[in-house]
Amino acid sequence: MSDIAAPPAKLLIVDDESAQMAALCDTLEHEGYVTTGFTSAKEALATLRTQKFDLLLTDLMMPEMDGITLLRAAQQVDGNLVGIVMTGHGAIDTAVEAMKVGALDYILKPFKLSAILPVLARALSVRWLRMENEELQQRVGERTAALETANKDLQAANKELESFSYSVSHDLRAPLRAIDGFSKILVADHAPQLSAEAQKMLGTVSANARRMGQLIDDLLAFSRLSHRPISKQRVKAAALVQQVLDELHREREGRQVEVRIEPLPDCMGDPSLLKQVWVNLLSNAFKFTRRRERALIEIGCQEQQDEKVYVVRDNGAGFDMAYVGKLFGVFQRLHRSDEFEGTGAGLAIVQRIIQRHGGRIWVEAALDQGATFYFALPP
Are 291 and 183 in the same domain? Predict the structure, then answer.
């Protein structure tokens, strides 16, 4: 596939000496340029207002309008236009002054084609760079405007989400509390009139109302993570893990549970959010080792060059890795609720927190052989 040739550059040539202007136009036409010549600076300027040119090549000393004045006026019409002035040996100082006000270069008379062509090529390169820069700035402006619009839309969506969260919190919880409360009152006040089967059914109604309430709480917690600001600071991981283990001490009562903790380096993150990560992972470790006569939970860290990988390993129920794709989904469960309690939102919350910290999380497991959770945080 051949490249498409660029259109020839259009030159506007102004010189009050008609013979010299015509000769220059003819010479440059033979070199592949499209030229338009004028002996009048005012006529050239009027044409520039109606036609596009790439380069203005103007004589410096002209009776009607000098080259510096013409150049200034031309660049007000087209800010990307490049200008070159033509001058005699005695007016080099004036040519330098022209360059100070916007001329890119100057050419000495009498002309030599070998001197003119490199100057034109260099000037046109500047012209194209200016145009590309202008186009880039326009694109940046359009992208910025689009981002500002998207940001406003996002803020509006967040407000709608907050409104929805309040509605869910208030409007849905109230009837659930009523269902749970009236079910308990019915059993407490009218138990003699109810059969055992009816009491069992009311107990099921009450339990499911409470479970629905927990599902709502977990859904709200998950949705709020998307727009909650993160306040990163140095976190002492060892102290944080010990705090979580102390708060979960009831999970170990009446059980033989060994918790092994390897040295845990500090990390950068939001302390409250990272605490939620450890709470969810360690709660799961205690929960899924509940049926083990001797439970083992190991906590450690593998420091690597570009990240710190924290590890939580247990010898609990584990799961089939064929279903690992479901593990971090909201309300996805790999065990029946009559085996292990929970809504299935905990690991989805953990993943969201880790991702918002710029990290990643993964797991290795086998059915009835335990699970190992890894989460990596940037240094």
Answer: no
